[in-house]
Amino acid sequence: MPTSRPESAEPGLTRLPGAEVKALYRYPVKGLSGEALARATLTPGDTVPGDRLYAIENGGGRFDAIAPRHLPKIHFLMLMRDERLATLKSTFEDSTHTLTVLRDGKQVARGELSTSLGRRLIEQFFAAYMKAELRGPPKIVHAQGHSFSDVAAKCLHIVNLASVRELERTLSRPVDPLRFRANLYLDGLEPWAERDWLNRHIELGAVRLAAFAPTGRCEATNVDPATGARDLAIPAHLLKTRGNTEFGIYARVVAGGELTPGMGVAIAP
Question: How high is the pLDDT of residue 54?
Fold first, then answer.
Protein backbone atom coordinates (compact mmCIF):
# COMPACT_ATOMS: atom_id res chain seq x y z
CA MET A 1 0.00 0.00 0.00
CA PRO A 2 1.44 3.42 -0.95
CA THR A 3 2.81 5.46 1.95
CA SER A 4 4.16 8.42 0.00
CA ARG A 5 2.99 11.91 0.82
CA PRO A 6 0.32 13.63 -1.25
CA GLU A 7 1.61 15.81 -4.09
CA SER A 8 0.44 19.35 -4.63
CA ALA A 9 -0.85 20.05 -8.15
CA GLU A 10 -2.78 23.16 -9.10
CA PRO A 11 -3.39 25.57 -6.19
CA GLY A 12 -5.75 24.03 -3.64
CA LEU A 13 -5.62 20.58 -5.27
CA THR A 14 -3.70 17.68 -3.71
CA ARG A 15 -3.07 14.61 -5.83
CA LEU A 16 -2.77 11.33 -3.94
CA PRO A 17 0.03 9.19 -5.45
CA GLY A 18 -1.04 5.60 -6.04
CA ALA A 19 -4.69 6.27 -5.21
CA GLU A 20 -7.16 5.16 -7.86
CA VAL A 21 -10.72 4.21 -8.66
CA LYS A 22 -10.70 0.44 -8.25
CA ALA A 23 -14.31 -0.39 -9.12
CA LEU A 24 -17.69 1.13 -9.99
CA TYR A 25 -21.02 -0.43 -9.07
CA ARG A 26 -24.71 0.24 -9.41
CA TYR A 27 -27.72 -1.47 -7.84
CA PRO A 28 -30.64 -1.17 -10.28
CA VAL A 29 -33.15 -2.67 -7.81
CA LYS A 30 -32.82 -1.81 -4.14
CA GLY A 31 -31.87 -4.87 -2.09
CA LEU A 32 -30.84 -7.00 -5.07
CA SER A 33 -27.32 -7.70 -6.31
CA GLY A 34 -25.09 -5.05 -7.83
CA GLU A 35 -23.49 -4.74 -11.25
CA ALA A 36 -19.86 -3.79 -11.89
CA LEU A 37 -19.49 -1.02 -14.49
CA ALA A 38 -16.65 -0.45 -16.94
CA ARG A 39 -17.56 3.26 -17.03
CA ALA A 40 -20.21 5.66 -15.84
CA THR A 41 -21.07 9.16 -17.02
CA LEU A 42 -21.96 11.24 -14.00
CA THR A 43 -24.25 14.28 -14.03
CA PRO A 44 -24.25 17.04 -11.38
CA GLY A 45 -26.91 16.47 -8.77
CA ASP A 46 -27.58 12.88 -9.80
CA THR A 47 -26.59 9.33 -8.87
CA VAL A 48 -24.68 6.72 -10.88
CA PRO A 49 -26.94 6.10 -13.90
CA GLY A 50 -29.25 3.18 -13.20
CA ASP A 51 -28.59 3.07 -9.46
CA ARG A 52 -31.55 2.22 -7.19
CA LEU A 53 -34.03 2.91 -10.03
CA TYR A 54 -36.52 0.42 -8.62
CA ALA A 55 -37.48 -0.98 -5.25
CA ILE A 56 -39.79 -3.74 -4.03
CA GLU A 57 -42.34 -2.49 -1.53
CA ASN A 58 -42.96 -4.86 1.35
CA GLY A 59 -46.74 -4.39 1.44
CA GLY A 60 -48.34 -1.14 2.54
CA GLY A 61 -48.17 0.81 -0.71
CA ARG A 62 -46.86 4.08 0.76
CA PHE A 63 -44.73 5.07 -2.22
CA ASP A 64 -46.46 7.53 -4.57
CA ALA A 65 -44.95 7.51 -8.07
CA ILE A 66 -46.75 10.76 -8.94
CA ALA A 67 -45.32 12.62 -5.96
CA PRO A 68 -42.24 10.58 -5.02
CA ARG A 69 -40.47 11.21 -1.75
CA HIS A 70 -37.76 9.47 0.21
CA LEU A 71 -39.03 6.67 2.42
CA PRO A 72 -37.07 4.73 5.06
CA LYS A 73 -35.74 1.43 3.80
CA ILE A 74 -37.98 -0.53 6.19
CA HIS A 75 -40.79 -0.04 3.66
CA PHE A 76 -38.94 -2.15 1.07
CA LEU A 77 -37.37 -5.57 0.82
CA MET A 78 -33.82 -5.05 2.07
CA LEU A 79 -30.77 -6.99 3.20
CA MET A 80 -30.82 -5.51 6.72
CA ARG A 81 -33.85 -7.67 7.51
CA ASP A 82 -34.28 -9.95 4.48
CA GLU A 83 -30.95 -11.74 4.04
CA ARG A 84 -32.51 -14.32 1.71
CA LEU A 85 -32.21 -11.66 -0.99
CA ALA A 86 -28.46 -12.28 -1.02
CA THR A 87 -29.00 -15.83 -2.31
CA LEU A 88 -30.29 -14.29 -5.56
CA LYS A 89 -28.30 -12.72 -8.38
CA SER A 90 -29.85 -10.30 -10.83
CA THR A 91 -29.08 -8.56 -14.10
CA PHE A 92 -30.70 -5.45 -15.53
CA GLU A 93 -30.94 -4.39 -19.18
CA ASP A 94 -30.96 -0.60 -19.60
CA SER A 95 -32.66 -0.56 -22.99
CA THR A 96 -35.77 -2.48 -21.89
CA HIS A 97 -35.54 -2.28 -18.08
CA THR A 98 -35.69 -6.08 -18.06
CA LEU A 99 -34.77 -7.66 -14.73
CA THR A 100 -33.56 -11.26 -14.67
CA VAL A 101 -33.34 -13.03 -11.31
CA LEU A 102 -31.18 -16.13 -10.85
CA ARG A 103 -30.71 -18.59 -8.02
CA ASP A 104 -27.79 -21.02 -8.06
CA GLY A 105 -27.07 -19.86 -11.61
CA LYS A 106 -30.54 -20.74 -12.90
CA GLN A 107 -33.13 -18.20 -14.03
CA VAL A 108 -36.09 -18.09 -11.66
CA ALA A 109 -37.82 -14.90 -12.83
CA ARG A 110 -37.65 -12.41 -15.69
CA GLY A 111 -39.75 -9.37 -16.43
CA GLU A 112 -39.68 -6.00 -18.16
CA LEU A 113 -40.15 -3.59 -15.27
CA SER A 114 -41.42 -0.80 -17.54
CA THR A 115 -44.56 -2.89 -18.24
CA SER A 116 -47.33 -3.98 -15.88
CA LEU A 117 -46.98 -7.61 -17.04
CA GLY A 118 -43.23 -7.60 -16.45
CA ARG A 119 -43.64 -6.13 -12.97
CA ARG A 120 -46.31 -8.69 -12.15
CA LEU A 121 -44.02 -11.58 -13.14
CA ILE A 122 -41.32 -10.32 -10.78
CA GLU A 123 -43.83 -9.59 -8.01
CA GLN A 124 -45.23 -13.12 -8.25
CA PHE A 125 -41.77 -14.58 -7.79
CA PHE A 126 -41.03 -12.49 -4.71
CA ALA A 127 -44.49 -13.20 -3.27
CA ALA A 128 -43.54 -16.87 -3.19
CA TYR A 129 -39.81 -16.63 -2.47
CA MET A 130 -40.07 -14.04 0.33
CA LYS A 131 -43.45 -15.18 1.67
CA ALA A 132 -42.30 -15.42 5.29
CA GLU A 133 -40.82 -11.91 5.26
CA LEU A 134 -43.71 -10.08 3.59
CA ARG A 135 -46.21 -7.82 5.33
CA GLY A 136 -48.41 -7.74 2.25
CA PRO A 137 -48.21 -8.26 -1.52
CA PRO A 138 -44.83 -7.11 -2.89
CA LYS A 139 -44.98 -4.26 -5.38
CA ILE A 140 -42.31 -3.04 -7.83
CA VAL A 141 -42.12 0.76 -7.56
CA HIS A 142 -40.38 3.40 -9.67
CA ALA A 143 -40.61 7.11 -10.45
CA GLN A 144 -38.76 9.05 -13.11
CA GLY A 145 -35.71 10.73 -11.60
CA HIS A 146 -36.18 9.12 -8.17
CA SER A 147 -33.47 7.06 -6.44
CA PHE A 148 -34.32 4.56 -3.69
CA SER A 149 -31.15 5.27 -1.74
CA ASP A 150 -30.91 4.90 2.02
CA VAL A 151 -30.47 8.69 2.17
CA ALA A 152 -32.69 11.38 0.68
CA ALA A 153 -29.86 13.16 -1.13
CA LYS A 154 -28.93 12.02 -4.63
CA CYS A 155 -25.33 10.97 -4.21
CA LEU A 156 -22.64 8.32 -4.53
CA HIS A 157 -21.54 6.00 -1.77
CA ILE A 158 -17.73 5.68 -1.50
CA VAL A 159 -15.70 2.99 0.29
CA ASN A 160 -11.93 2.92 0.83
CA LEU A 161 -10.56 -0.60 0.30
CA ALA A 162 -7.68 0.11 2.71
CA SER A 163 -10.30 0.64 5.42
CA VAL A 164 -11.85 -2.70 4.46
CA ARG A 165 -8.47 -4.39 4.91
CA GLU A 166 -8.03 -2.71 8.30
CA LEU A 167 -11.47 -3.97 9.29
CA GLU A 168 -10.38 -7.48 8.23
CA ARG A 169 -7.31 -7.15 10.41
CA THR A 170 -9.23 -6.18 13.53
CA LEU A 171 -11.95 -8.77 12.91
CA SER A 172 -9.42 -11.49 12.02
CA ARG A 173 -11.86 -12.47 9.28
CA PRO A 174 -12.07 -11.80 5.53
CA VAL A 175 -14.58 -9.09 4.61
CA ASP A 176 -16.08 -8.92 1.13
CA PRO A 177 -16.15 -5.20 0.17
CA LEU A 178 -19.49 -5.81 -1.55
CA ARG A 179 -21.06 -6.10 1.91
CA PHE A 180 -21.04 -2.28 1.88
CA ARG A 181 -22.94 -1.95 -1.43
CA ALA A 182 -20.92 1.11 -2.45
CA ASN A 183 -20.96 2.79 -5.86
CA LEU A 184 -17.29 3.71 -5.83
CA TYR A 185 -14.40 1.69 -4.38
CA LEU A 186 -11.05 3.48 -4.04
CA ASP A 187 -7.65 1.91 -3.38
CA GLY A 188 -4.07 3.03 -2.76
CA LEU A 189 -5.02 5.14 0.27
CA GLU A 190 -4.30 4.95 3.98
CA PRO A 191 -6.98 3.29 6.14
CA TRP A 192 -9.72 5.74 7.16
CA ALA A 193 -8.29 8.51 4.95
CA GLU A 194 -11.81 9.10 3.62
CA ARG A 195 -12.92 10.42 7.00
CA ASP A 196 -10.73 13.49 6.43
CA TRP A 197 -12.54 14.28 3.17
CA LEU A 198 -15.85 15.41 4.64
CA ASN A 199 -16.79 18.90 3.43
CA ARG A 200 -14.06 18.70 0.78
CA HIS A 201 -14.08 17.95 -2.94
CA ILE A 202 -12.83 14.70 -4.48
CA GLU A 203 -11.55 15.05 -8.02
CA LEU A 204 -11.51 12.05 -10.37
CA GLY A 205 -10.53 13.26 -13.84
CA ALA A 206 -13.20 15.76 -14.89
CA VAL A 207 -15.55 14.51 -12.18
CA ARG A 208 -15.76 16.42 -8.93
CA LEU A 209 -17.61 15.07 -5.89
CA ALA A 210 -18.47 16.91 -2.67
CA ALA A 211 -18.20 14.63 0.35
CA PHE A 212 -20.89 15.58 2.85
CA ALA A 213 -21.56 12.77 5.35
CA PRO A 214 -20.18 9.52 6.74
CA THR A 215 -22.15 6.35 6.04
CA GLY A 216 -23.77 4.86 9.12
CA ARG A 217 -23.76 1.09 8.84
CA CYS A 218 -26.72 -1.19 9.54
CA GLU A 219 -27.15 -4.93 9.98
CA ALA A 220 -27.13 -5.43 6.20
CA THR A 221 -23.30 -5.47 6.33
CA ASN A 222 -23.49 -8.59 8.52
CA VAL A 223 -24.84 -10.57 5.55
CA ASP A 224 -22.38 -12.37 3.27
CA PRO A 225 -23.33 -11.17 -0.25
CA ALA A 226 -22.21 -14.49 -1.74
CA THR A 227 -24.11 -16.88 0.54
CA GLY A 228 -26.79 -14.88 2.34
CA ALA A 229 -25.40 -16.05 5.70
CA ARG A 230 -25.60 -13.55 8.57
CA ASP A 231 -22.08 -14.32 9.75
CA LEU A 232 -20.51 -11.09 11.05
CA ALA A 233 -21.40 -8.26 13.43
CA ILE A 234 -19.79 -5.31 11.65
CA PRO A 235 -21.72 -2.35 13.17
CA ALA A 236 -21.15 -3.71 16.68
CA HIS A 237 -17.45 -4.25 15.93
CA LEU A 238 -17.09 -0.72 14.54
CA LEU A 239 -18.77 0.71 17.62
CA LYS A 240 -16.45 -1.27 19.89
CA THR A 241 -13.21 -0.47 18.05
CA ARG A 242 -13.89 3.01 16.64
CA GLY A 243 -16.66 4.46 18.80
CA ASN A 244 -19.23 4.71 15.98
CA THR A 245 -20.85 2.59 13.27
CA GLU A 246 -19.61 4.69 10.33
CA PHE A 247 -17.88 3.14 7.33
CA GLY A 248 -17.56 4.96 4.00
CA ILE A 249 -18.82 8.38 2.95
CA TYR A 250 -21.53 9.95 0.82
CA ALA A 251 -20.66 12.50 -1.88
CA ARG A 252 -22.71 14.60 -4.30
CA VAL A 253 -21.71 15.09 -7.93
CA VAL A 254 -20.87 18.78 -8.43
CA ALA A 255 -19.05 18.47 -11.79
CA GLY A 256 -19.90 15.70 -14.22
CA GLY A 257 -17.93 13.57 -16.62
CA GLU A 258 -16.93 10.02 -17.37
CA LEU A 259 -15.63 7.84 -14.57
CA THR A 260 -13.64 4.63 -15.17
CA PRO A 261 -11.60 2.26 -13.01
CA GLY A 262 -7.93 3.25 -12.91
CA MET A 263 -8.51 6.99 -12.67
CA GLY A 264 -6.42 8.87 -10.14
CA VAL A 265 -7.67 10.71 -7.07
CA ALA A 266 -7.12 14.28 -5.92
CA ILE A 267 -8.56 16.22 -2.98
CA ALA A 268 -9.49 19.92 -2.95
CA PRO A 269 -10.83 22.24 -0.24
Answer: 98
Residues 6+ positions from 77 with CB-CB distance below 8 Å = 30, 31, 55, 56, 57, 58, 85, 126, 130, 133, 138
Q: Within a 10 A sphere around the Cβ of 9, how many other Cβ atoms?
A: 12
Please state, in angstroms and as integers, the Cα–Cα distance from residue 16 to each residue in 19, 209, 255, following that order.
6, 15, 19
CATH homologous superfamily of 7-28+37-43+151-268 equals PK beta-barrel domain-like (2.40.33.20)
Angle between helices 234-242 and 161-171 (to 10 degrees): 90
Q: Determine the distance from the C-alpha atom of residue 46 to the mean position of all C-alpha atoms in its chain, rounded to a whole number.
A: 14
**In angstroms, rounded to a whole number, what is the distance separating the alpha carbons of residues 212 and 198?**
5
SS3 state of residue 35:
strand
> What does the domain layout of the chain look like in residue ranges?
7-28+37-43+151-268, 51-141
Q: Measure the CA–CA gap between 217 and 222, rounded to whole angstroms.
A: 10
Contact between 40 and 29 under an 8 Å Cβ cutoff? The reply is: no
Q: Say if pTM beats, i.e. exceeds, 0.90.
A: yes
- pLDDT bucket at 12, cuts 50 / 70 / 90: confident
Residue 240, Cβ neighbours under 10 Å: how many? 10
Mean pLDDT of 40-68: 95
CA pair distance 63, 75, nearest whole angstrom: 9
